[in-house]
Amino acid sequence: MSAPQRRPARRPNGGAAPARRVQPARRVAYDVLRAVSDDDAYANLTLPAAITAASLSPQDAALATELTYGALRRRGTYDAVIAAAAARPTSDIDPAVLDALRLATHQLLATRVASHAAVNESVNLVSAEVGRGPAGFANAVLRRISRDTPGQWQERIEQGARSDDERLGLRTAHPVWIIRAMRRALTAEGRADELEALLEADNVSPEVTLVALPGLAEPGEPRRPYAPTAFGSPGGDPHTIISAAGGTVRVQDEGSQLVALALAAARPIAPGERWLDLCAGPGGKTALLAAIAHENDVVLEANELIPTRARLVRSALKAVPGDITVHEQDGRDLTAVHPGRYDRILVDAPCTGLGALRRRPEARWRKAPSDVAELAALQTQLLAGALDAVAPGGIVAYVTCSPHLAETSAIVAEVLRGRDDIVELDAGAVLSEVAESPLDLASDGTGRVQLWPHRHGTDAMFLALLQRTEPSHPRPSHPSEGD
What we know:
By secondary structure, the protein is of the alpha/beta class. The protein has helices at 24-39, 43-53, 58-73, 75-86, 95-110, 115-129, 132-146, 150-159, 164-172, 176-188, 195-201, 239-245, 254-265, 284-295, 307-317, 331-336, 363-366, 369-389, 409-416, 427-434, 453-456, and strands at residues 209-212, 230-232, 249-251, 274-277, 299-303, 325-327, 342-348, 390-400, 422-424, 449-450, 462-468. The longest helix has 21 residues, at 369-389. The radius of gyration is 24 Å and the shape is globular. It starts with 23 loop residues before the first helix and ends in a 15-residue tail after the last strand.
């Protein structure tokens, strides 16, 4: 991912502003915020490239990261504060000015940065980017915000909330629809009282977790509690370890490791099995499965529809010996022409990503309820196709990085409705066998698993394991079977 491009300064108001130096960390954070706002960029991809391009020191890189992620995570709360201080809705504020105000508001209300530095640097940004007139407006708004404490601003904006959920959203920086979706998912487990702990966990930067590909690398220290392949990064910076390992060690959330390991452990592996990672991009789970497949004389294939992501999959697989075919097809088409071909299929379905809000801070403000309905149709079709593409006795792992019930249990229930050739395995029992420490898993009687950031320290990964039995009706053979 390339660094965000510097945009030409716009000065429709007040003429050319005198050159004023902006501290490099704040400049990087601002440029990333602008890329997220204007170009739908992802901060977790754009920020590292911007830090490298700016040659920031470790201290400045840490400041840029805190400012970027903090302003993005709490955007809804900060927008309410800015609107109150400006006496106008944020939709009436120039987007370039608004991003500078968000950056400064985070510094004023959530960091130890001196108020004068936060205000002056952000005003300089606006002056350089937009002009003197908007800079005067920004100065007035920020000085108004700096006069009151964070607690006073929180109380003020919560007074305008129209419901308890909106009040909770302002306090925890989550849209109301996400709060309600999370509550429903926790209630289904009988754990509704954990809602606020979950929302707070979404606002804490996760520790870096690495995966050591089995048979190719050994996990270092500190070890993570559950996945036998997972370990932390001493000092937090993984680049030295990753570079030295030649691709056999990479960054991967522990929850992502667990669901891939569960598919491999769902039954004993027989040499010659054929596996498929149906929605493989960007390739982290694919690489883990590939390493296990290499150890067990298994043939692995991967599929990724989007060419740029398919290239990432191929890159991730370079560290694993052997040739692995990476298809670039719609997963529904691929499974349709290969009925009964595979022994195990991972369906890591495209989803809203609501389980990874810790690492993708802008996602909560970018997603909408309508996205869930659009994705559900695709998720249903991908899972149904995968079940048709496994041989009798074969296993499909349905995985999402979202706890939204419409993307998890509802999809499984819909696909299983009317089928008598599928049995659901106890994914919780399988995962408990894989894990090196006891997992606190809530049970709803289905055997499905939901991991949580506040409970397990992982992304909120969902897992269901489905095994195909003998079909209730014969299926025609296909020329490509056995290729």
